[in-house]
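Standup notes, protein team

Yesterday: finished cleaning the Aequorivita lipolytica set.
Today: Efflux RND transporter periplasmic adaptor subunit structure.
Blockers: none.

Input for Efflux RND transporter periplasmic adaptor subunit:
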Amino acid sequence: MNYIKSFLLLLILVLVSCNNSKTESPLPASPEGSSEMIHLSKAQFENAKMEVGQLTEKPFAETVQTSGVIDVPPQSRAVISAFAGGYIKNTPLLVGDKVTKGQRLVTLENPEFITMQQSYLETAEQLSYLKSEYDRQKIMMDEKITSQKSYLKAESEYKSNLARYNSLKKNLEMLNMNPASVQAGNIVSQVNIYSPIDGNVTQVYVNTGTYVSPADKIMEIMNTDHIHLELKVFEKDLMQLKKEQEILFTVPEASKETFKGGVHLVGTSIDPNSRTSLVHGHIDEKDESNFTAGMFVEAQIVTGTSNQLALPETAVVEMEDKNYVLLIENENAEEFELHAVEVKITATYNGFTAIENTSEIKPDSRFLTKGAFVLLQEEGGGGHGH
């Protein structure tokens, strides 16, 4: 029985090994020594609108690597709070809502608002009487009819009341109450808080019925019209940077796409702990709407260019963490004969990829520069239709 089990086990291992060998990709593990040839007919080449090209010298960016965040200027961000405590009576806005400067954001209610208006009214009425008394005492003092003590007392009471009147008036104005309306007898228990800027609601910290004190945040509003890059650059790289240099950046968490911007300001001080300085960059206008403040970015600041041998990006195909190009070995009236060559790439810029030379690539070598991806995917998947 043990002999039979051993034999069956051996048979299973052989079958598994055979199946694995059948599913291997025909792509070479390395460019050297590969004889796998791909045949591409001229008709297929024309129908798929493929293209052929050679290595050419192209300028590639010399860059400073950095990272940072997308942010807005301080004046484009507003934290809304109340100048006096109260209960939230009405919150009509949600996160993401657009608001304009002067638009009502929330309504606060507090019985103390009534007391404050009554105090203002009483002070205003007293002020009228005390002003008249002060003016009368001043005239009498000039004519030596009254004593200096009576005059000084009238002056003190008037100026003290005037200070209180102005203070209460300012409090009403800060709460968006109209002092003239209050003096006309219009007493209210509710006050509105209005937006100080145009923008969008980014945070709401309260619900209807919440009590807020003057120190509490009610909501945050942000205007992204002037969104920009705040990048941290190491001290060793700072001397290479200057205004208007190109910035190439990505938002790794959101997209692989590369966006463009430009250096606007280079920091003039170094953080003693991180040994970095801030670089302020502007984003191309066509891309600004794609972002929101707080996004993490990885960026390259272009400090110059150097020429390197390159092929169009479409000529290079990444498969299983390796990069390949299709080298044309032979061509006749009917077809192309190509094979995959593994290459090392050093940079990609403006639609071209810099290729590190290999022993198989000669100065006059020709490559499939458009259509390589489809062809290699078919071959890599085991298809031999060409």
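Follow-up from PR in the comments: The longest strand covers residues 296-312.
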